[in-house]
Prior knowledge:
The structure holds two protein chains of two kinds. Chain A is an alpha+beta fold. Chain A has helices at 3-16, 18-56, 85-94, 128-132, 145-150, 159-166, 210-217, 239-253, 269-312, 314-322, 327-364, 372-398, 402-407; strands at 60-65, 69-70, 73-74, 98-112, 117-125, 137-140, 154-157, 176-179, 182-190, 205-209, 227-233, 264-268. In chain A, helix 11 (327-364) packs antiparallel against helix 12. Chain B has helices at residues 49-56, 79-88, 105-116, 120-133, 149-161, 179-194, 206-209, and strands at residues 7-18, 21-33, 38-42, 64-69, 72-73, 90-93, 167-171, 198-202, 214-219, 222-228. The N and C termini of chain B lie far apart (45 Å).
Amino acid sequence: MSWLQTLRVALRALQRNKLRSFLTTLGIVIGVSAVIAMVAIGDGAKARVEASFAAMGSNMLIVVPGTSTAGGAHGGHGSMPTLTWDDLKAIQAEIPTVRYAAPQLRSVAQVLSEDQNWTTQVLGTTPEYFAIRTWEAEHGALLTQTDVDGGTKSAVIGLTVAEKLFGPSANPVGQIIRVKNVPFTVVGVLTKKGQSQFGQDYDDTVVVPVSTFRQKIQGGLGNYIAGSIMVSAVSSEATQRTERQVRALLRDRHRLQPGADDDFSIRNLAEIANASQEGTRTLTTLLAAIAAVSLLVGGIGIMNIMLVSVTERTREIGLRMAVGAKPGDIRLQFLVEALVLAVAGGLIGVTLGLGAARWLASSFGWQVLYRPDVIIIAVGFSGLVGVGFGFYPAHRASRLDPITALRFE
Amino acid sequence: MTEAPLIQLSDLVRTYRMGDVEVQALRGVSLTIAQGEFTAVMGASGSGKSTLMNVLGCLDRPTSGRYLLDGQEVSTFGTEKLAEIRNRTIGFVFQSFNLLARTSALENVELPLLYAGVPAAGRHARAAEALARVGLADRLEHMPNQMSGGQQQRVAIARALVTQPRVILADEPTGNLDSRTSVDVMALFQELGRSGITVVLVTHEPDIAQYASRVVVMRDGLVKSDTRREPRRAEPGPAEDGPLAEVIP
Lengths: 409, 249
């Protein structure tokens, strides 16, 4: 008997007991829809974490100067400037896995436009900063090396600042803002980055050339950087090596003896991002495992009903054998029935799962991500469940003795 | 006779084990049936006639002895091969019809062709032809529960005929039918016999057996008597259209 014929016979047999067939597939439907929805939600969460780390900057390390100790009171990181401008140049020049390095001087100040004011953080840095943060201009342009070299009074502002000072949807390029009574020309507005994972608004910032910052906003410290150094490695794999090399370089430059504490510290954001992703991945795996268990339960449901069906249809099996069905034909027929049940359940489950994920996304504002490979795996796995749990009932049917089967009441 | 007999049984023994007891259902049956013969096998229950039918129908294998069917020594065949023989050489008719429920007459008749691998178009044509031969050309799409017992049994006969078998084995085919319908069915079997199909019928009703041209009586697993005689001619009655006869699901 051809496959198509076997399929038709199976479909007909399932049609005869519509309600029962539907209830049998329900286990698979729930299992598969759970898998699809869970993975979509898990992947959505992962993508969100990834996006928020990507917003911080790519493959980023932050070098923070060391601690000061005055009268037994430890000042915390960054309380004593230990990093020099030469350290920055050395990091840029001597470590091949460093793509960019930029100083980051920071001050909180009130910023005035013609008729508004807003207190925000003001950063003094170099053009590399934008490359490290992968930040681009929405309007106008970014700061250039010429701005830094010439100490121009140019500023690039974040979207939040632009809105507070100039109103929403205004283009403030060319306008004047005052920071600590120094007029700056707005040369560009940065694209929206949104919030950090911890609720900090990335767009609430004003960026000015580091040279101007030192001259006009916060007095300099001579050779020392009164802030931190941001470093971007060439790739995420290279961040750890870069961290080691920066540490070695700075220890050498600061002439620290072996065994002495670092007079700076390095924060590896890529590491934090990886750890965080690992967490969501574990969660996704866990959810998928729970869903897989429910698929297994669905499979047992199929086996149970197939066994009932074989018993019920003993006489039919006997008759089919009498008119020439081989044991293989009978086995195939019941296997295909189980397979059809399982795959139909899988397909319904995919539809429901996608629907559930979309509903969760819209009603709770969760981010979800649909992965075609998960859908294919879920349907394939339910097919496998069908064949796996259908095999025993099918085998039992094929082993029936036609004489006994024909006389079965 | 120059032609080899269609069925040749020699010293057929079939023993069952029931727990510790050995039951000899057939104790050495030798029987030869020529092509086109219409044979009735009679006997009380326990006489071995059902076992004989199972062996003849290739549903069961003899413990010892030889069974030549259409020149083939089938007693040595395996399960797969026996299924093929049942499909091609033998047609079955059962007491309880054994039609598939909620399946049209046409599809019921097509069933053996399905396992023979006949393509769809050929299946439909042959099944319709077989149904026409049993007088049900106008009932192709009827479901078994929409037909009388006699009609259902004729569908079953069409199903047995559709593969153009050499032998039709009928196990108490009139057991669930009233006497009028029984005669119709016997007329059909006589007609098949005349067209060259060998019919072997198991029955315990002497009334029914008298339509056969040969009566074999079994007793205690042996052939007790084997007589040939002029059969009574079955006159088909008017087409039954009355209330449904007994319907067995």
